[in-house]
Specification:
Shape: elongated
Helix content: 40-55%
Number of domains: 2
Order of helices and strands: HHEHEHEHEHEHHHHEEHEEHHEHEE
CATH topology of the largest domain: Rossmann fold
Strand content: 15-25%
Number of helices: 14
Radius of gyration: 31 Å
CATH class of the largest domain: Alpha Beta
Number of strands: 12
Largest sheet: 5 strands, parallel
Length: about 325
């Protein structure tokens, strides 16, 4: 019984949302154009459950390139209307279109010549008639069996708000880079905005050996560094090559008793993959994916080693076997 009721509620709301597409027309297009022409912000307002939906719409607009914030209509009527400038667009959400608190702020907005966009479920309501653009979010049936709790109607307003935000995104040419700037704390923001120099392991913490170091020194450096490789550099810090686990195994097989006296420059792999410190992190990770490598050595403009960037976001971990520095390892 419980599962049946839940499925019925979902089916009712899904049907009502599907019907919304038929109501997206001239008024919706006019609202989008008005917001695009707006020199101020979109002020979203609504009471009760509609207010909660309004808060989400305002947050979605703000994070997708349309400056917006939520204003509680009751607080607005008692002084917060000072937040609203004549250049702002007001978006008011009210299923009935007769919400007292929403209607009380409408005369101020009209007098100040603010463009008013109304989301209601009643096209002939007071708010709908007062709006410059009325967007019909009406539903035939609430999911609530008593038709009392706002369910389908609030979902419809929410979905229409998402449609408005997406239409504005497309019209503005809003891209992933813009989204990342408003979400710097997320993984997308980190990859799109962060640079290699922000994420790399600094040179002083890397296992670096001289070309004259013997194989035993290289092995010790690799063990201490726990990166699966040692970097070979000259006295000025210029990159010469890398020594991987595979290089050491092959040297042991070929040199045998002479292995421990073999110099690092004799067994290193030349021309490992590198990257500049000012490269964006997302570009660096795309480079590693394309080349099939797990680490990139970071060089400055003079070719000096300044760090190493490990692949942090993929399934591969630092120090794992496989492809390192652009060289296929034998197993």
């Amino acid at each position: 019984m419980i599962v049946k009721v839940a499925k019925e509620a979902i089916a009712i709301e899904a049907k009502e949302i599907a019907n919304l597409a038929d109501r997206v027309g001239e008024a919706f297009e006019g609202a989008v154009k008005a917001i695009l022409a707006c020199k101020g912000k979109v002020i979203v307002s609504g009471m009760g459950k509609s207010g909660l939906i309004g808060q989400k719409i305002a947050a979605t607009l703000a994070s997708t390139g349309t400056p917006s914030f939520f204003m509680h209509p009751a607080e607005a009527y008692h002084g917060d209307l000072g937040m609203v400038s004549p250049s702002d667009v007001a978006l008011i959400v009210s299923n009935s279109g007769e919400t007292d608190e929403a209607l009380k702020i409408a005369p101020f907005l009209i007098d100040q010549r603010n463009v008013i966009v109304a989301f209601t479920g009643a096209p002939q309501s007071t708010l709908a008639r007062a709006a410059d653009f009325h967007i019909d979010c009406s539903v035939a049936k609430e999911a609530c069996p008593l038709s009392l709790a706002p369910t389908s109607s609030t979902t419809a307003a929410l979905v229409m708000g998402d449609a408005l935000a997406i239409a504005l995104m497309q019209a503005r040419g809003f891209a992933a880079e813009h989204f990342a700037r408003f979400h710097p704390g997320g993984s997308l923001g980190r990859k799109l905005l962060a640079l290699v120099e922000h994420e790399m392991i600094d040179a002083e913490n890397l296992p670096i050996v001289s070309p004259a170091a013997n194989a035993l020194d290289a092995m010790s450096a690799m063990s201490a560094g726990r990166l699966g490789a040692a970097i070979v550099a000259d006295e000025k810090g210029a990159l010469l090559g890398v020594i991987t686990d595979g290089d050491l195994r092959r040297a042991m097989e070929q040199k045998r008793e002479r292995f421990f006296t073999t110099r690092a420059e004799e067994i290193m792999t030349k021309n490992p993959k590198t990257i500049a410190p000012k490269t964006r992190l997302i570009e660096a990770e795309e480079t590693m994916d394309r080349l099939g490598v797990h680490q990139l050595i970071v060089l400055d403009d003079q070719g000096k080693i300044v760090g190493l960037l490990p692949y942090r976001t993929g399934i591969t971990k630092v120090g794992s076997s496989g492809r390192l520095f652009g060289k296929k390892e034998s197993r």
